[in-house]
Amino acid sequence: MRTEFRLSGSGGQGLLLAGIVLAEAAILEDKFAVQTQSYGPEARGGSSKAEVVVSEEDIDYPKATDPDYLLALTADSYRTYGKLQGKGLIIVDSSVQLDPEIKARTTAVPILETASVGLGRKVVANIVALGVLGGISGVVKAETLEAAVLNRVPKGTEELNIKALRAGLELAAKAKKA
Fold first, then answer.
1. Which one-letter DSSP state was computed for residue 96?
2. So what's the architecture of 2-177 in CATH?
3. β-pairing, 89-93 with 2-10?
4. Three-class SS of residue 151?
5. In the chain, what are the domain boundaries?
6. Which of 6, 10, 16, 28 is the most buried if burial means most Cβ atoms within 10 Å?
7. What are the E-state strand segments in the chain?
8. What's the first-to-final CA gap in the chain, in angstroms?
9. pLDDT tens digits for 98-125?
10. Measured in whole angstroms, how far is the alpha carbon of residue 92 from the centre of its chain?
11. E strands, 21-154, where?
12. Rounded to an integer, what is the distance from CA 47 to the centroid of its chain?
């Protein structure tokens, strides 16, 4: 079983870290995982993309060729990566206007609003997004995601980041019911 993720947005949103945490969580569950990333020359504001491949078996190719899950936090990343070929699900931030030309299954989730308004810190949008991805995909257990988050976030921010992860998991549960 191979599950492919593409996390996309703009530089500075922390999606590269979210991809690293997702891969680490898979490894903590004795799965194979590889994470790759790319971003524009601009440190902040340019396009960024992280890909994570999780498998029960050896991974022969480290890139996502037909993502099962695409996370798009910006309109630009949604338009750039939204033309999925197969069975993939697009998880887009609810602030992004949907494009009728993109035919893939899509769910809009208030990731950025949850971080900035619900938690009062837009900087944790990446961890909210991680919770949404983990909750919708079920690729790893919530407890394992928590452990991986605690391994990777800066000291002193653990409580805020766990709240962000749990908020994302709650958003995922609501999205799955809808």
1. S
2. 3-Layer(aba) Sandwich (3.40)
3. unpaired
4. helix
5. 2-177
6. 6
7. 2-10, 32-39, 47-55, 69-72, 89-93, 105-109
8. 26
9. 998 898 999 999 999 999 999 999 999 9
10. 10
11. 32-39, 47-55, 69-72, 89-93, 105-109
12. 15
